[in-house]
């Protein structure tokens, strides 16, 4: 039997019934804390609970601050149709509590999680642990407010969604799901061992989102629900404009570390990425509908080691374009061992429309260091000042007569031992996922008369095998995980 007491500065909830305490459930204590405008402190222990709610219809409609000393309190989901829901009550704080979802399914429809904040602006989940959820771990939906600014009708944030910070989320289907929010902050969390996705930032239709995903450690993300990339990602952005994904450590994902689909004005930088089953950073445009174009991306200063392919800004055919891909290091792009990946991987960096690929280092890409253009989907492409080393082909540029202009200049390309320097720069044609590519011309055959859209500047292509002080071989194959 549990009970609570009202003190001068807080409400205290505990197992048992000490003298002076009132017998009651955790829900009772939550309501009393809110009605009295005091924080609720939970004493160390394990509590079997369910259907915990923070609504306008209980607790006087006031915010809840509920906390414990981290690692001392476990709430175990054993009854009811949902675990904890914060519904239309802003400024709540949940701190230092472990939520054991106990493998129990949520009977509620929609986007429910073990912790769900719905239209609960400025909510903060801090230093909590969530595990064992067959669905979502933590969900923020429609949190934060916005207003229309200017004659163009752009919507700008007036109040942020809130924050998920310093939490550990594991053994869930998806760890963190933010949908239709404004400026959600997801920082400093540990996400691991999830069945289908790590962190999702989505909008129902393309619009400004402004969320920040930074400083998180994400590892072992499966794709148990199948598909060709909608699952199996460390961070997935969908229709969410103005987001930043920075300084995360992402390892062992079935598909991508960061996947941005139909997202304008995205920054992906400073991420440390290892062991991706498909494309490590994928900026794509799959919808192709009017007003749903992926435009404006910075992909910079990421370190990628061991992946199917490294970085791709693609789907110019659907309107995906306009990116700066600079200062990245990509190593060991090899053939994917993910059976649902239907195309040949092994490319370091690829871009299609209105992109600059500058100042990157690509080493040990099985097929191509850098690819600019896909058939006629090529426009205003620059590949410059890159170091490309020990790749099957250094740089491949589209040979299509209808392609736009491509400038390849000031690159340093070292071919592997036994591979002709003619493969340093080639003109190619993409034949399809199952047919691969055709090499139309090697470097000496790319002339202004034969390929007037491919402009070659001063590139250094060589096969000098300078001794390495500590030789490191290219990876033979991707790890199985």
TrEMBL record:
Identify the domain of life: Bacteria
Q: Which residues form the Right handed beta helix domain?
A: 84-217
Q: Which Pfam families match?
A: Beta_helix
InterPro entries the record matches? Beta_helix (IPR039448), CHP03808 (IPR022388), Cofactor-bd_rpt (IPR022444), PbH1 (IPR006626), Pectin_lyas_fold (IPR012334), Pectin_lyase_fold/virulence (IPR011050)
Q: Which NCBIfam families would you find in this protein's record?
A: RR_fam_repeat (TIGR03807), RR_plus_rpt_1 (TIGR03808)
Protein's UniProt name: Right handed beta helix domain-containing protein
């Amino acid at each position: 039997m549990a009970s609570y007491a009202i003190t001068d500065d807080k409400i205290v909830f505990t197992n048992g019934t000490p003298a002076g305490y009132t017998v009651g459930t955790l829900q009772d204590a939550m309501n009393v804390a809110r009605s009295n405008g005091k924080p609720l402190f939970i004493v160390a222990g394990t509590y079997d609970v369910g259907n915990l709610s923070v609504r306008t219809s209980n607790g006087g409609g006031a915010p809840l601050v509920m906390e414990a000393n981290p690692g001392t309190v476990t709430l175990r989901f054993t009854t009811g149709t949902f675990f904890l829901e914060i519904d239309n009550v802003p400024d709540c704080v949940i701190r230092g509590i472990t939520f054991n979802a106990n493998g129990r399914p949520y009977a509620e429809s929609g986007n429910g999680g073990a912790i769900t904040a719905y239209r609960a602006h400025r909510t903060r989940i801090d230093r909590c642990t969530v595990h064992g959820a067959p669905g979502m771990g933590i969900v923020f939906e429609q949190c934060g407010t916005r207003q229309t600014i200017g004659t163009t009708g752009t919507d700008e944030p007036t109040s942020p969604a809130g924050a998920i910070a310093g939490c550990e989320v594991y053994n869930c289907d998806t760890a963190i799901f933010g949908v239709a929010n404004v400026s959600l902050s997801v920082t400093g969390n540990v996400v691991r061992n999830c069945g289908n996705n790590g962190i999702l930032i989505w909008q129902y239709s393309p619009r400004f989102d402004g969320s920040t995903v930074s400083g998180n450690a994400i590892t072992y993300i499966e794709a148990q629900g199948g598909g060709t990339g909608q699952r199996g990602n460390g961070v997935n952005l969908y229709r969410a404009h103005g987001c930043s994904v920075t300084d995360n450590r992402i390892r062992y994902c079935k598909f991508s570390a960061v996947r941005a689909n139909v997202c304008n004005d995205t920054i992906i930088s400073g991420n440390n990425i290892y062991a991706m089953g498909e494309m490590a950073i994928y900026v794509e445009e799959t919808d192709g509908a009017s007003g749903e174009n992926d435009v404006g991306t910075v992909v910079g200063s990421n370190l990628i080691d061991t992946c199917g392919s490294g970085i791709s800004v693609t789907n110019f055919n659907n309107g995906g374009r306009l990116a700066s891909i600079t200062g990245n290091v990509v190593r060991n792009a090899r053939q994917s061992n993910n059976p649902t990946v239907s195309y040949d991987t092994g490319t370091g960096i690829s871009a299609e429309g209105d992109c600059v690929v500058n100042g990157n280092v690509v080493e040990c890409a099985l097929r191509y260091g850098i690819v600019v253009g896909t058939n006629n989907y090529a426009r205003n492409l620059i590949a410059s000042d890159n170091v490309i080393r020990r790749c099957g082909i250094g740089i491949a540029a589209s040979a299509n007569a209808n392609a736009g202009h491509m400038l390849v200049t000031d690159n340093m390309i070292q071919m592997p031992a036994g591979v002709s320097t003619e493969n340093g720069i080639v003109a190619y044609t993409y034949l399809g996922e199952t047919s691969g590519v055709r090499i139309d011309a090697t470097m000496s055959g790319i002339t202004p008369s034969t390929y007037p859209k491919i402009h070659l500047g001063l590139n250094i292509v060589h096969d000098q095998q300078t001794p390495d002080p500590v030789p490191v071989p290219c990876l033979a194959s991707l790890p199985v995980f």
